[in-house]
Amino acid sequence: MRKFTCLLIVFLSGFFGAYAQSFSVSGLVSDENNMPLLGVNVIVKGESRGTTTDFDGNYTIENVSPGDILQFSYVGFEAQEITVNDQRTINVVLQTDSEALEEVVVIGYGTQQRKDVTGAVSVVDNQTLDELQPIKVEQALQGTAAGVNVTPQSGAPGADININIRGIASNSVNGPLVLIDGYQGDLNTLNPNDIQSISILKDAQAAIYGVAGANGVVLVTTKTGKKNTAPKVTYQTYYGIQEASREIPVLNATEYALLLNESYANGGQQIPYPNVSGLGEGTDFQSAVFKQAPISNHNLSLTGGGERVTYSVGGSNLDQEGIVGGDKSGFKRNTARVSLGVDINDYFDVQLNATYTNIARKSINENGLGSVLFNALNFAPTFGVNDQDLAGRLGNEIINPLSQIENTYNDYNLDKLNGNFSLDFTPIEELVFTSRIGYNLSKSDSKTFNPEIGADVYGPGKVFNNPRSTVNQNRINDNSYTYDLFGTYEDRYNEDHHVTFTGGMTVIRQWGDGLYATGYDVPNNSYEFADISLTTGTNDGLNNSSYVYDIRKLSFFGRLQYDFKGKYLVSGMLRRDASTRFNPDNRVGYFPSATAGWIISEENWFDSDTFNFLKLRGSYGILGNDEAGGAEFYRSALTGEATYVLNGQLVNGTAPGRIANPDSGWEEAEKINIGLDLRLLQNKIDITADIFREERKDLLVAGIPVSGIFGGAAPGAGAPTINAGTTRNQGAEFAINYKENFSDDVRLNVSYNFTYLENEVTEVNGTDFLPGGAFGVGQPQPARMEEGFPIGYFYGYKTDGIFQNQSEVDAHPAQNALGAPAQPGDIRYVDINGDGVINTDDRTNIGDPIPDFTMGLNLNFTVKNFDFTAYTYASLGNEMVRNYERNQPNVNRHAYYLERWRGEGTSNEVPRLTTAATSNGVFSDFYVEDASYVRIQNAQIGYSLPADFLDRVGIDKLRVYVAGNNLYTFTDYKGFDPSASTGEAIGGGIDYGFYPVPRTYMFGVNLNF
């Protein structure tokens, strides 16, 4: 009996022991806001066994034993490990990984985990914005997102910034569609501190926004509060000093006089400066114009949330003065923002966002012939700071730049209210309906006062002389709303099939009006009285003008996303758009696209300790564009001018403006993309690579010549807009990020990206080419859009050094047709067509303003409480036209003329100086320079006070930092700023004396409590 009892005890012990070592564990996985998480990976550490959470965040895992470690991992959240004892239920709350917020990607009418994204998407998060502290949002995209090229139109406060995604495809509008929390908005009016993340859709993924997605889409998500969090106050401020990042070396007074004497002597004229010994350095008008200028920024916000309510409110103030113009140049931006989310009940959620922006800007003449910097470069250094060219020696376009600033009065003010209101209805867990309306309401006014200026101020014959004082004023109203109504159904079947369907409609209306007027004879010739209501004079011409527009669009869209076992991903989209810009017969466009992905690392046969994630993806789609300027293309508005004979009297009136074209239709962009996403070494290395191609067809082109019988040359009129061109952009992108936490105190993050781009115009209909830009005075337009060449390429003469002697001149084809017979010391031009004479037929491609490569290299390094960041950017392979030098005998010159030709063998690059006629001033590659550059955009050192100290004073975070923006630019370009562009597709790379982006030194404080 004893033996039996012992055996029974041993048997039962083994039985219950076996039972105790093998049981199932279940539970709920949620985020810090108690929201269940779908698709969380739950595995037994060291084994391949595991499962994923269902739609409600629930999981069950079988055959778990005490001592096993369960790993919970989800993209965008910090992984957790929990050791199992004898518990059968384990609920887990995953914490958001602040360094992986970019893993959740906004893709249009929804979000997607980055691992499931099948399109080409770049993300810039709020951490990057905090580190760069950009004045404008657009600046944060340069060098941080592959395929995105950002160029400033000017470094002046408040100046516009161009964004091009994967090249320039259209001859008209190339900027992307910008959506802020779902509504069409403007980055220029946003406070960067209000932004949570920016997603950039670059390929067919943007087809969900078919109506205007051809140029890419920028999706901005602003900050909101979080549920069940205490109120959090954030204050950010910085103060900085700006200075000119570069000055162009020009001749001082002695050098100027010596070279001018040489020029006069070579021209057979009496030298103007017989004695140069007392001239010295003279006046440096660049230094006189450039001043150090302050910039300051303050941002205050309050965020938090309860069980059903989240909130975020804030305000900001930015005050930036210009480095040129003193109190005549500046930019002030004030914003106030509120974001409120309310869960009304289990079925209805409400979200409200509203932003008010006020902008006040003063500006000077920034770029172009006659700008302040143009005059600073060309005004002779022998003049004193307050001297004027009263003898008219410098020609009629050059005046004292300081006097020009003194007599400049330009004011601009903008008030804008924008935001959205959305209502989500969730009848069942798998289905959400969203009704959302976004709005933009803006009013602006500007005033320009031109005082009466006689010849005794600037000098006789100057184009700046003004016989009558005038004031130009305008008031503009621009409004829009976007209404979206769509539903999203998401469900998982048999744990293997994950389906998401999104379908709905969008209504867009853009409307507004503008009024322009001029008043003459301002009382007291003073800005204080510069208002049209006070002017006393009249004018025989048209003194006012106005416009009105109303554009409407209606769209229907659908998208189906499917993945099988989380490794085979497909998505199909179709959008139907209608735009009132086109004739009713051509109004509707259909824009389909498809994307697919294969997560190779999810395959059972994929087993690698090195490769943690590997995905192959591709996309194809057709996207549309109707943004080519003008409200309507198919009919004319009465915006032209005409003179009529009524009752025997001449009467000024209106006439049709731009010629109508009822046959105009949509631009279409056919986009193809193949990409690879790869993560290595425990996700420390993240790689993304893409190759892409875009064919832009049926370009909406304005300016194709038409017969004069149609009246296209009449005042206020113009050629019709027609579908008349095709372009191609193709290239590759690569981005790599390395992140290493050496310890809790030492962390490193390095990222690098580059983009390679080829651009070509493949077709232009109705004409051989479209010209653009300007060079010098009276010369043909130097840029072209022409089949077989990059859009906006430079068309001129190719050079082959300098003639060294008369025998070289005699042996070379004659250059008389260019303006004068060649002599030793003149530029030698290439006979392109080999006909033995140099003339207009020898012009050719001499440069391309579009860079071949753009790159970004960014570093973030943290040691205990100290942090260091550096952002650099490079643009390689682009050329720029040097057009800031006036071709007049007495103006100042660039210092490279110190290396001019003075006799045989002295120079083979810079021509001789002479007052006699030469052909050296025609547009050639002598004026086209390599504008490649590498720029240190930002470097910052910060220190965060220790947490134990801050806890005692009730502060969550206090960080102080010093930073430098636009610290240095490495380039061979001779001008002020190789990064600038006017933004024009044809002629954008011509430098008329670009106002340089300033170098800024800042001290800042970030405070959270």
Could you describe the 3D structure shown?
The chain is mainly β and about 1000 residues long. The chain is about 5% helix and about 45% strand.
Number of helices: 9
Q: In this structure, how is the largest beta sheet organized? A: 22 strands, antiparallel, barrel
Shape verdict: globular
End-to-end gap? 75 Å
Relative helix content: under 10%
Please give the radius of gyration in angstroms.
33 Å
Please state the oligomeric state of the protein chains shown: single chain
Low-confidence stretches: 1-20, 98-102
Q: Which structural class do you get from the secondary structure elements? A: mainly beta
Number of strands: 51
- Overall pLDDT level: 89
What proportion strand? over 45%
Helix and strand layout, with pairings?
Elements: H1 2-20, E1 23-30, E2 41-44, E3 50-52, E4 58-64, E5 69-73, E6 80-83, E7 92-93, E8 104-106, E9 111-113, E10 121-125, H2 126-132, E11 148-152, E12 161-165, E13 177-180, E14 183-184, E15 195-201, E16 217-222, E17 229-243, H3 253-266, H4 285-289, E18 293-305, E19 309-321, E20 330-343, E21 348-362, H5 372-378, H6 401-406, E22 410-428, E23 431-450, H7 455-458, E24 470-493, E25 497-520, E26 544-564, E27 568-579, E28 588-599, E29 611-625, E30 640-646, E31 649-655, E32 667-680, E33 685-697, E34 700-702, E35 721-723, E36 725-741, E37 746-764, E38 769-772, E39 783-786, E40 793-796, E41 799-802, H8 806-811, E42 827-829, E43 844-847, E44 853-863, E45 866-876, E46 879-882, E47 928-930, E48 933-944, H9 947-952, E49 957-971, E50 990-991, E51 999-1008
Parallel strand pairs: 1-7, 13-16, 46-50
Antiparallel strand pairs: 1-4, 2-3, 2-5, 5-6, 8-9, 10-15, 11-12, 13-14, 15-16, 17-18, 17-51, 18-19, 19-20, 20-21, 21-22, 22-23, 23-24, 24-25, 25-26, 26-27, 27-28, 28-29, 29-32, 30-31, 32-33, 33-36, 34-35, 36-37, 37-44, 38-39, 39-40, 40-43, 41-42, 44-45, 45-48, 46-47, 48-49, 49-51
